Amino acid sequence: MQEASAIKAEFARAFGDGGRVHVIRAPGRVNLIGEHTDYNDGFVCPMAIEAEVRVVCRARQDGAVRLASTAFPGEIAEFSVEKKIEKGKPAWTNYIRGVAAELVGAGIPLTGMDALIDNTLPVGGGLSSSAAIEVGTGLAFLTLAGVEMDRDRLALICQKAEHEFAGVPVGIMDQMIVATGRQGFATQYDCRSGARQFVKINPDDLRVVIVNSLVKHELTGGEYAKRRKQCEEGVAYFQKLSPGAGIRALRDVTMKMIHEAQGKLEALILRRCRHVVSENQRTIEAATALAQDKYERAGKLMQESHASLRDDYEVSCAELDFLSVEAMTVKGVYGARMTGGGFGGCIVALTQPRSVEVLEAHLVRVYQVKFGRKPTAFATSATAGASVVE
Predict the structure, then answer these.
(1) How do residues 202-249 score in pLDDT, each as one tens digit?
(2) What domains, with CATH codes, occur in the chain?
(3) pTM for the full model?
(4) Among 268, 338, 382, 386, who pairs with 47 as Cys (CB 3.0-4.6 Å)?
(5) What is the 3-state secondary structure of the chain?
(6) Which one of 174, 252, 293, 321 is the catalytic residue?
(7) 17: annotated active-site residue
């Protein structure tokens, strides 16, 4: 991440000097446990991380929105908030077009904007670079319009933008934690009710290490939507089986019901359902364990989560499996698992502070030998959600 002065200088090169310039930051996120549960009305336990997106922005009077990115020097994309906002090129701008369209649809009087996006989050790494761009630019639009908005509402608007403009039917977790994260805490979040409990992550006792496999996941490739459809098929089965049980989502299905469906429900659908139902239980228990400093128990639940994602939900890959197994060979590591949508991206590990450097060095070395690529590894603290820096 460049210093604020350097990013502002780059903004001036792209859009010229003058006017009041604002800087907004929006963190990425890592999910400690609770994967593919959010769109099933379940429980998640993410935290905002130090790697982030920064948006340098300035209001315009003509309704035009001009976008540049440090990742694509010399390119400027443009659309207008005074006309119907539609999908366009380059593809990354659709996250911003979508947010603008949803804000206009919500009755927010947007002004035009020049904006430069600077991002230290790996795109496709499963650390929510898309949600950070959405929430960051959403906050930029609101700041320039002089409008305050409840952060939960902003998260919902950004989630809808990703559905409509990026074509990815994500749950609410990513946008929620990017918008509302609390410094020093992970959040156990109930994706149905919106209730949350803050779980202290004390960096003196516990460190969170993220390792990027460099295998880029692409949730728009259809596998994510396929998993959602399989979950819906499972819900339909259990609704038909127990019409008076009030089953609205896999959140309402119990492990007893999963066991009783063995041999009756299609095996593939049953495995998908079993992951979600068991993952909800693991997430609640892991958040409690973390809150009570029972790190060994939380770590064991993370390992069980990875096995379930690998075998029942089938969203892992050889690289993530390898990193998760190798992490557990390092003394002082409590648990490790894939994090994010899967099919690549990152693992997350909980470790004692004294083991961080050993863990990072070990995983970089063995992964490079096995796969011929050098993964990126970094430790992070839990940070606050999106904010106006200046």
Answers:
(1) 999 999 999 999 998 665 468 888 999 999 999 999 999 999 889 999
(2) 4-200+384-388 (3.30.230.10)
(3) 0.91
(4) 382
(5) CCCHHHHHHHHHHHHCCCCCCEEEEEEEEEEEECCCCHHHCCEEEEEEEEEEEEEEEEEECCCEEEEEECCCCCCCEEEECCCCCCCCCCCCHHHHHHHHHHHHHCCCCCCEEEEEEEECCCCCCCCCHHHHHHHHHHHHHHHHHCCCCCHHHHHHHHHHHHHHHHCCCCCCHHHHHHHHCCCCEEEEEECCCCCEEEEECCCCCCEEEEEECCCCCCHHHCHHHHHHHHHHHHHHHHHHHCCCCCCCCHHHCCHHHHHHCCCCCCHHHHHHHHHHHHHHHHHHHHHHHHHCCCHHHHHHHHHHHHHHHHHCCCCCCHHHHHHHHHHCCCCCEEEEEEECCCCCCEEEEEECHHHHHHHHHHHHHHHHHHHCCCCEEEEECCECCCEECC
(6) 174
(7) no
